[in-house]
Task: inverse folding
């Protein structure tokens, strides 16, 4: 089972596979913005679309919170570039 969750204590979104941490997306909160700084998927889990799922669900969560996104992470920026439905969330630093 794949689960994506926000871990506010560590300021990151996490993707878990069968209960094991497989990747994360670090962020900082700045006013009403979520600054996504770095995304990483464990090499043992690469090639399964986990990074995309992680970022997509993180962006959905940001939208639910009524916040905007600053995509400093190149993976997040690229994901948003391929998924125009998230373009309205983007704010620049």
Result:
């Amino acid at each position: 089972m794949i689960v994506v969750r926000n871990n506010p204590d560590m300021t990151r979104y996490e993707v878990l596979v069968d209960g094991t941490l497989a990747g994360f997306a670090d962020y900082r909160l700045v006013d009403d913005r979520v600054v996504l700084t770095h995304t990483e998927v464990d090499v043992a889990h690469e090639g399964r679309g986990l990074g995309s799922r992680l970022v997509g669900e993180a962006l959905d969560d940001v939208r639910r919170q009524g916040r905007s996104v600053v995509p400093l992470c190149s993976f997040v920026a690229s994901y948003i570039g391929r998924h125009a439905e998230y373009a309205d969330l983007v704010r620049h630093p």
